[in-house]
UniProtKB/TrEMBL annotation:
Organism classification: Bacteria, Pseudomonadati, Pseudomonadota, Alphaproteobacteria, Hyphomicrobiales
Pfam family, one: BPD_transp_1
PANTHER family to which the protein is assigned, alphabetical: DIPEPTIDE TRANSPORT SYSTEM PERMEASE PROTEIN DPPB-RELATED
Bilayer-crossing regions: 107-129, 141-165, 207-226, 261-287, 307-333
InterPro entries noted in UniProt: BPD_transp_1_N, MetI-like, MetI-like_sf
Transmembrane helix listed as a keyword: yes
Gene name, Swiss-Prot/TrEMBL: dppB
SUPFAM superfamilies from the UniProt entry: MetI-like
Similarity comment: family membership: Belongs to the binding-protein-dependent transport system permease family.
Protein source organism: Neorhizobium galegae bv. orientalis str. HAMBI 540
Membrane protein topology class: Multi-pass membrane protein
Full protein name: Dipeptide transport system permease protein DppB
Domain ABC transmembrane type-1: 101-326
Gene Ontology biological process terms in this record: transmembrane transport
Keywords: Cell membrane, Membrane, Transmembrane, Transmembrane helix, Transport
Main localization (coarse): membrane
Length: 340
């Protein structure tokens, strides 16, 4: 019960802290975008609109008001769930984000699973070969992986498995002929609950390459942090005491070394997942994946300020939620941090 109470206090504290952060981010987004040499009123009208029509639209949109009043009006609408209307797509920004956000969330979650599997396995192997000739080779290999960004992995995987061998699809979320079920917006989940296993498998095939690209690019940092944490943990006295009690090296690693070394790795995973969620943009473009990244690029290309503001706030909220979840897990795994 004490643990749940501590976690509840942490959640309340984090939520209260998140409110001013969101307000500050929203104000920065709003002011910075208004400085850009873009006239939303003119872009909302046909190219042959007259000056009078543009001025009338500016008045209707409140662009003739002082900046702080414009921000107050926008913030009031935001509290009522109205992010604005897209200038380019002529749709509510809320519906556009709602239709693309699940795709990016699915991509980021599966990529994080890939990164975790590769990172933990690679970190354990790096620790296992410590002091041997293979250590230098594996260390060089991990640095090589770390130096390659996700968009290069995307291109490599696309050329190898999509173009050369032609074993995996590399555009979109579904192949032609597959009907997309719409229940929650999460394609994989919706396919399972509606019993469309073929659609689920096809969607999963389309996600293999982008998820591998993101996961492989993220995994080297996890490998190296886990290896370093294990090396530090094995310098502590409790490891020597466990050996004196006759425990096997495997049991010492799992029950003592890994239990303590996983905490710094978990913190890094939380930070990296936040960057991963926001870093899917280039990968989505390369694979024509219809997520938030593609929506953001279209918005920037067309100077669609309402979408840019909405997407920026969405990314901020996602990072804050990820931070809260990681802090809660850290608190559960590390009893020393619990307040008595």
């Amino acid at each position: 019960m004490r643990m749940f109470a501590t976690i509840a206090k942490l959640l309340v504290k984090r939520v209260l802290t998140a409110i001013p952060i969101l307000l500050l981010v929203s104000a920065l987004l709003f002011c910075i975008l208004r400085i850009l040499p873009v006239d939303p009123a003119a872009m909302s009208l046909p190219p042959n609109a007259t000056v009078q029509e543009v001025e009338a639209m500016r008045t209707e949109m409140g662009l003739n008001l002082p900046l702080y009043q414009q921000y107050g009006i926008w913030l009031n609408k935001l509290f009522h769930g109205d992010i604005g209307r897209s200038i380019h797509f002529r749709q509510d920004v809320t519906s556009l984000i709602g239709s693309t956000l699940p795709a990016t969330v699915e991509l980021a979650l599966i990529a994080m699973v890939v990164a975790t599997v590769f990172g933990l396995a690679g970190g354990l192997f790096l620790f296992y070969v410590r002091g041997t000739r293979a250590e230098a080779v594996m260390d060089f290999f991990s640095i090589l992986l770390l130096s390659l960004p996700e968009f290069l992995w995307s291109l490599f995987l696309l050329l190898i498995f999509g173009v050369f061998f032609e074993v995996l699809p590399f555009t979109g979320r579904l192949s032609p002929g597959f009907e997309r079920p719409v229940v929650t917006g999460f394609l994989l989940f919706d396919s399972l609950i509606t019993g469309k296993i073929s659609t689920f498998l096809n969607a999963l095939e389309h996600m293999i390459l982008p998820c591998l690209a993101l996961g492989i690019a993220l995994s080297p940092s996890l490998m190296r942090v886990l290896r370093s944490s294990l090396l530090d943990a094995y310098q502590d006295d409790y490891i020597q005491q466990a050996r004196l009690r006759g425990l096997s090296e495997k049991r010492i690693l799992i029950r003592h070394g890994l239990k303590n070394a996983i905490l710094p790795t978990l913190s890094l995973m939380g930070v990296q997942f936040g960057f991963l969620f926001g870093g899917t943009l280039l990968v989505e473009i390369i694979y024509s994946y219809p997520g938030m990244g593609n929506l953001m690029v279209d918005a920037i290309r067309n100077a669609d300020l309402p979408i840019i503001q909405g997407a920026g706030l969405t990314y901020c909220i996602a990072v804050l939620v990820i931070s809260i979840v990681v802090d809660s897990l850290y608190l559960i795994l590390n009893p020393k941090l619990r307040v008595r």
